[in-house]
């Protein structure tokens, strides 16, 4: 199967958004976790590092998943590869 320029552009955009979201995931998971002790201040009565580890990271993960689904649905419609309902 020969890939057209349109196919290549679709996959280039797909890989770009995947890379960006993976970079955000890496930052939230490892970088913020590594510097958690340095972020030690009270946040709603809990140490901020605990809040980031227990709640903040989960919120960011859900936002990443939601944004990826939204973006890919929009990209699929734009390139005519959306699934029919």
UniProtKB/TrEMBL annotation:
<keyword id="KW-0812">Transmembrane</keyword>
<keyword id="KW-1133">Transmembrane helix</keyword>
<keyword id="KW-0472">Membrane</keyword>
<feature type="transmembrane region" description="Helical">
    <location>
        <begin position="15"/>
        <end position="36"/>
    </location>
</feature>
<dbReference type="Pfam" id="PF13937">
    <property type="entry name" value="DUF4212"/>
</dbReference>
<protein>
    <submittedName>
        <fullName>DUF4212 domain-containing protein</fullName>
    </submittedName>
</protein>
<feature type="domain" description="Sodium symporter small subunit">
    <location>
        <begin position="8"/>
        <end position="81"/>
    </location>
</feature>
<feature type="transmembrane region" description="Helical">
    <location>
        <begin position="48"/>
        <end position="70"/>
    </location>
</feature>
<dbReference type="InterPro" id="IPR019886">
    <property type="entry name" value="Na_symporter_ssu"/>
</dbReference>
């Amino acid at each position: 199967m020969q890939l057209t320029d349109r196919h290549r552009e679709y996959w280039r955009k797909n890989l770009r958004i995947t890379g960006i979201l993976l970079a955000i995931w890496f930052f939230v998971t490892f970088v913020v976790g590594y510097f958690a002790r340095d972020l030690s201040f009270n946040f709603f009565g809990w140490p901020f590092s605990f809040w980031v580890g227990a709640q903040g990271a989960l919120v960011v993960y859900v936002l990443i998943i939601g944004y990826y689904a939204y973006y890919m649905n929009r990209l699929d419609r734009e390139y005519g590869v959306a699934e029919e309902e």
